[in-house]
Each structure stands twice: as C-alpha cells, then as structure tokens.
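Entry type: protein chain
Record version: 2
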Amino acid sequence: MRLGRRALLGGLTASLGGCGFQPVYMPSAGGSPGVAERELSAIYVALIPDRPGQLLRQALQQRFEGADGPAKPLYTLTVGYWISGEGIGIQADTVVTRIRLFANANWNLIGRDPAQTHITNGFSRTEDAVNIIDEQYFAADLQTEAAYQYLAKATAEQIGNRLAIFFRQKASA
C-alpha cells in the first residue's frame, strides 16, 4: 500500500515538473534559499500607525525574516492599514451582537535606492467576526484583540505570498 502511494506521488511530482510547475519557495540547486526567500528577507517594513498597524508590522517582519536572519534591506514596504466593521447580528431591539471586521491594506514596495524606484504595489483584504457579550466586557476586549491579531497575520500572509510570487516571476522572466 505504501509503495503504491509513493509511486503515485512520485508520478504526480514528475508530471508537474514537466508542465513548468515550480514551488514559489523552491531552494536553489545548491540548497541555499531560493529567490523568493532571499528577496523577502531583504524587505524593511516601515512603521504602521496605531495598534492594529503594529500587529501587522510584527507579522510582516516575522513573515519576511529569512533562515539566516534579516538581510541587508534592498526594499521598503509601506502599508496603509485600517480595520472597519459592520453589525451582522442585530436583535429585534436593534442591539448588535456580532460585528464583522474587515482589515484593508494598501501596500507599496519601493527600492532603497536614491530614486526610490517603485517596484510593485497591491491591496489586501481580510475579514473576521467577533461576538459582543453585554455582561462580559473583558471577554469581548480579549476576543477583539485576538481578532486583530488574526487579521494582521492573515493580511501579512496575503502580502507575503503576493510578493513571493512577484519575485519568483521576476526571476523567471
């Protein structure tokens, strides 16, 4: 049974290689980090204001840190980040019991050269929801903070994936 699975996985992997598929984070032939990992580790994340911005900046820094630690910055990532919300759980007396949160990020990647060359930009949007509990203010506060952390990590993941794909495509061209 195991031999059959391995043969099937080996065949699938070989067929994907034939169609030009290559993993985004594929290491180089010598085993060193690939182009996406090297380029991501060379990104300096500029300050992002407010508490949600701090969470996003930390998540981006963790996402971009290379295996060998931070590289010399070649790029600066600037992010405009805001969270908005809408009531989705509304009782008959118009009291909101659940809020859907939307994290929005406009981001720009610029070179750290004297001309500050524009490299690429994009927009990311993530959503989550929190319950509002009347009697438990502290619990609602903790739940909102956890939602902000989730939104920051998910947004950082989106931005990181888009940048990794951009660098991989740029290297292949």
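Comment: The longest helix spans residues 137-172.
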